[in-house]
Predict the 3D structure of the following.
Amino acid sequence: MQCRSMIDKSEGRSGPTVAPAAPARPTSADVARRAGVSRATVSHVLNSTDHPVSERTRQRVLAAAQELQYAPNASARALRAGRSNIVLVPMSRSAVIPGQDEFLENLDRELADRDLVLLMHGDRTTNGARGAHAWAELRPAAVYLDVSRGTPAAVELLRRAGVQAILLTGVPSVTYAPTVPLDPAAAARLATQHLLTRGSRRLACLVPGGALAEVSARRHHAVVQVAAADNVPVERVDCELSSDSIAPVVGRWRDPAHRPDAVYASNDQFAILLIHKLLEAGLEVPQDIAVVGSGDDPLGAALRPALTTTSFVVPEIARVVASSIRRLLDGHDLDPDMEAALRPRLVIRESG
Amino acid sequence: MQCRSMIDKSEGRSGPTVAPAAPARPTSADVARRAGVSRATVSHVLNSTDHPVSERTRQRVLAAAQELQYAPNASARALRAGRSNIVLVPMSRSAVIPGQDEFLENLDRELADRDLVLLMHGDRTTNGARGAHAWAELRPAAVYLDVSRGTPAAVELLRRAGVQAILLTGVPSVTYAPTVPLDPAAAARLATQHLLTRGSRRLACLVPGGALAEVSARRHHAVVQVAAADNVPVERVDCELSSDSIAPVVGRWRDPAHRPDAVYASNDQFAILLIHKLLEAGLEVPQDIAVVGSGDDPLGAALRPALTTTSFVVPEIARVVASSIRRLLDGHDLDPDMEAALRPRLVIRESG
DNA sequence: AGGCCATAGTTACACGTGTAAAGTACGCGC
DNA sequence: GCGCGTACTTTACACGTGTAACTATGGCCT
């Protein structure tokens, strides 16, 4: 025994009012007491600072922490450090990436590898400023959000709240914050180019409304642009995910004179529904009409004819996003692999 | 001006080391300074304690907070209070509820109405104890997790970490923590009962593997049980979401002697694929074979024949879960409406 | 022998907040 | 005039952590 007077706070916890039999979650002081060292030493050991600590006490501290199931208090740690290791992702319902749960799962793993914790926040607070206010309360180290929410005002508020890294995602036009240029139009361009190369001279584009409206609009615009370069006309078909919404169009297309030779649907579910309706009407896919979707819905691969579609390499995107956030926090630029990772892939199957 | 010597901490922030041009996120002290009052008064005003504050200073404080865009530091608040207002939801990939994003969106809103913040945590840490350790660091007020992760050890660890409310979800057999008895088998029972009432004498059950394996197994078991009460046999069909997986079964069913008169698929996507294959094989749905799924996938409503399925009233479930968490935190029991809200609804369309 | 460095541990303080307790001014009744 | 409640405001402390600065103890070199 060396010394015994390392009472950081002598008395145990005693809430001034009630203290309703709190189960005494262990603090670093408890670990210190048990290991017979000071709290500072515990901290040095557990955070593996370069501060010298003898191997013997190191082991004792580790053992004590283990026995007590000690977990450091993230709040206190964040308060002391001035920042947390939290990466906040306010989830938006109109996510560009389909299969966003897969993306988030990958992102979580990648961030964990970089000593960051992913926390997703619901979209209770839709309007920019009010939302940013709520996010700021958590004092996250980084925020990764859709550009539709990352208005200049929201970004400014977050900056002032001490958020070190703010990463936007969406169309690459903004300049007031680093951006992951995840352009939904890229997939549409890729699909259109494929259909043109395949020989299409007359296109149609399904434009879903509702939650998908914004993404669909961008994609439609891209289709028109690419097709225009080859002097190919594009018929715009606004629709919902219902039989009644698609049926009239398909009815019209039974007449070869009014029929496009290929259709791009900005969402696989709509592509699947369309193919279903086309077959029902006695048309053949892709012989009469080719169909290409976007999103790589698993059902599209299983049905016949199997759906040609575009997809993102989700794990790769998650990797570069996580990497970029880490780099931003460390004062560097975005991951140079970013653009390559964001390029959509064409998945050619049977439908077009 | 009344007094001027309310310097809580006289010197402004000056990080001992670098302080790299921190953009001075405002603290309550800044608000106090600007309003010409003490920090305590600011706190009283902003938290609307029952402590008396004159209307004049109240307005001044509010104005100052507004101008400074002040957002309280959640870490400090949580540290002081001993608990946060965070409800942590470790998301599991094998979520019972389909459309879990819709559920989370609703849950978020409901919790917000009850002064709680929903944070979702990825499933990086799959194994119980290690995961619980990570969750404990955040010192959330409540944790809502799947029973598969809420092992007794994990629950114990969370309890010791000071988490006040731990709510499990899943099969209702556990006793060491309050549970939301969201039984996937209930939907299967409902669907089977419907098919039997409809006159089915020979059933089949699609049992998807992969991520859905566990839920599927439970549902299959339920189907067998309910059918057995009526002496109806159930053919078990293990499958994946691919054409090759379903085709052989459908091929066999072309022979009326080997054909069930109704099929329950524990997931709508599989039901959709099955119908597709049945039609392809020249069989009629529901005349030759009725098909019922679970999950209320929007595509199921759009395709023909429209899919009969089961669904949960997601907003209602979210409401009772949020309500129960709040009640747990306040020392009460679960919301009495719980069981009613969890009952699945039958959505009868064309396929069965 | 005395000065100096390295090692191993400590003390002390700050982070931003909430709130009990103490203080200040003021009006009122004795 | 003095005590006393009332209305407001401030002071003081604790929450749990990380780390700069300090103390103590030897060993080594001059």
User: Anything to note?
Assistant: Chain A touches chain B through 62 residues (CB under 8 Å). The two ends of chain A are 79 Å apart (CA to CA). The CA atoms of residues 41 and 53 of chain A lie 8 Å apart.
